[in-house]
């Protein structure tokens, strides 16, 4: 489904401040994989997701999505294939637009049509069904401005928005990190439901090691621009957070350092 070969990304190349954010990343992601991505501070996790989405260009290597080499394609030309959510609920949805307008906007992502034509009766039915599925009652509030929703409700809506056009790939960059623990749990449960229902291939960055172990069928750990650990469902299901921290130390040769990491 996705193949990354030899991905390299530098910031400030050729200067004393040069940073090699991605260092020879090679990764095969199968259709339906739900990968949790953890790592030390500045390991390159966000840069990797941004490179896949085309938000930043890479300096070397190839990115193949669904058999197509998208390495040189700009972000908007990958948008139909990829749903993305970052950690900020304010950024992932448009506050002044209604729930249905936000969904219409998401539905038309990457297509050349006006917003007014987007909210047709059939689409509204589809939006209602997708919202009903996440169980927050938002399907009864289609005309409500999104700015009046809570952070958790906005991230749940962002999930529906990111998946309404059935992307090949879902990229989640700490999408529950800005929420209180209860809302974070709710949004994670909704995430799992949406991913399973549509069999979405998913990459999710998290600072919560429990979350990284609990969700998905594969776990990847990064350190200094490299993938240092890649474990499958069976091994993952037998690991504890302490095991994971110990594995990090043995693979990286350093103590796990992440000032935001949640060990439990
Ligand atoms: N736009 C940018 N300009 C310059 N340097 C950047 C930029 N984005 C990231 N970096 C640097 O690249 C490295 C990787 O950053 P990245 O944000 O991908 O790490 P991360 O694993 O997501 O980190 P964290 O978990 O701390 O958010 C870091 O050293 C960071 O400072």
From TrEMBL:
Keywords: ATP-binding, Nucleotide-binding, Transport
A Pfam family recorded for this sequence: ABC_tran
An annotated Gene Ontology molecular function: ATP hydrolysis activity
UniProt domain ABC transporter: residue ranges: 2-249
UniProt family annotation: Belongs to the ABC transporter superfamily.
The protein, known as: Putative ABC transport system ATP-binding protein
Organism, as annotated: Desulfallas thermosapovorans DSM 6562
Taxonomic classification: Bacteria, Bacillati, Bacillota, Clostridia, Eubacteriales
